[in-house]
Amino acid sequence: MTTATPRYDGLRLKKFDDAAFDDVDALRSAVDERIEQLVAGNGQNDSLAKAMRASALSAGKRMRPLLVMLVARDLGCNSPALIDVACSVELVHAASLILDDLPCMDDASLRRGKPAIHIQFGEDVAILASVALLSRAFGVLSQAQDISPVTRARLVATLAQTVGDQGLVRGQFEDLHGGARSPEAIATTNELKTGLLLGVAVDMAAIMCHADDNVAQQLRAFALAAGQAFQIKDDFLDGAGNDSAITGKDTGKDIGKATLINTLGVEEAQRRLAACLNEADGCLAAAVGAKGRTRHFMGALFSSQAKGKRFMADATKPRELRPSAHLAELRVN
Question: What is the CATH code for 18-329?
Answer without folding.
Answer: 1.10.600.10
